[in-house]
Amino acid sequence: MGRNRATLADVARLAGLSKTAASMVLNGREGSRLSPEAHRRVFEAAEELGYRPNVAARSLRTRKTATIAFVSDIVATTRFAGGLIRGALDAARERDHVLLIAETQGDEAFERYAIEAMLDRQVDGVVYAAMATRRLAVPPALLGGPVVLLNATSPEPLPCVLPDDERAGRTVATALLQRGHHDRIALIGRHRLKERDPEVSLAAQARLTGVRDTLSAAGTALFAEATCADWLPEHGYAAMRSLLARPTRPSAVICMNDRLAFGAYQALGEAGLRIPDDISVVSFDDDPIAAWLRPGLATAALPHEQMGRRAVEILLDGRAAEPVLVPMPLRRRRSVARPAS
Fold first, then answer.
1. For the stretch 79-88, what's the b/e string if a residue is b when 16 or more beta carbons lie within 10 angstroms of its beta carbon?
2. Among 34, 122, 202, 301, which is most buried by a count of CB atoms within 10 Å?
């Protein structure tokens, strides 16, 4: 038989206080007029006895279970997942909450099952996350309680946390302008569906708007724009080759994501051109591989850890009236330099 679990009465007895007084101290309730010495005795007694509060009993009194559901489509198995989940976990832990994570893999039947299972456990709220930044339909079962959308928006008036893609577009364009690039900045990654359908992507149009507005304010415009069937390395490779086939090549290239930039690097290397001596390259996302390229790829980082943290904070502290946009910091690596003379 294991050691009997310590009770609140045991803690109070060892601290020399009433059970009510010990409970007020351990629960951090306002109104306790106990001395700092009494507080110290309670905490020391709880530690000595290994006291753990009865969460189930407390939940019956407070109607709170100190648990949060994190439901995603395929976030948990993507290369960017760690940040989103780590930020949410850290924020939950700091508030003495536990995060329950379910990944649906896009299976609607399983999503309904997972959501019902978590709601049956009376979670205090739900973070509903998406892999790609997009508009989505929120399952009706979630609309009856606290929910925050992570990396997504919805037709429903729900609080949401998003990366600030438009500001990131301004950031990468400004980085090139500050290095002296002006008239020969090209862009790789135009994609009609991503730009026009918010259920596919919110990032594409926002990034493009930020780039164009910044260049326009500087009295210039994109020198060339390459359309891609998808934002994958092979499409970045083909787009870069098409730009190099033009009579005048660009001095700098903005890629709409890092995977396109990986392909552009390959095409430039095969053409015997050096980055950034011959052409500068800047991008978005900060894929883990970006820092390992040679030279390292300058890119606006998706702030997934901060986003996950903010989603939990909003869930527990109260809804945000407007979408919360989290800045995407520029990772200033060696792929950007002044234009070749």
1. ebbebbbebb
2. 202
Question: What is d(CA 307, CA 189) in angstroms, rounded to the nearest whole number?
Answer: 25
SS (H, E, C) 95-151: CCCEEEEEECCCCHHHHHHHHHHHHHCCCCCEEEEEEEEEECCCCHHHHHCCEEEEE
Domains of the chain by residue range: 8-53, 67-163+305-326, 165-302
Region of residue 274 (phi > 0: left; psi between -120 and 50: alpha; otherwise: beta)? beta
Residues 253-286: tens digit of each pLDDT: 999 999 999 999 999 999 999 999 999 999 999 9
pLDDT band at 245 (very low <50, low <70, confident <90, very high): very high
Q: What is the CATH number of domain 165-302?
A: 3.40.50.2300
Q: Are strands 330-331 and 298-301 parallel, antiparallel or unpaired?
A: antiparallel
Q: Are the C-beta atoms of 333 and 300 separated by less than 8 Å? A: no
Which superfamily, per CATH, for 67-163+305-326?
A: Response regulator (3.40.50.2300)
Average pLDDT over residues 106-131: 85
pLDDT digits (tens, 9 = 90+) for 317-329: 887 778 999 999 9
Query: If DSSP codes are grouped into helix, strand and coil, which group holds residue 4?
Result: coil
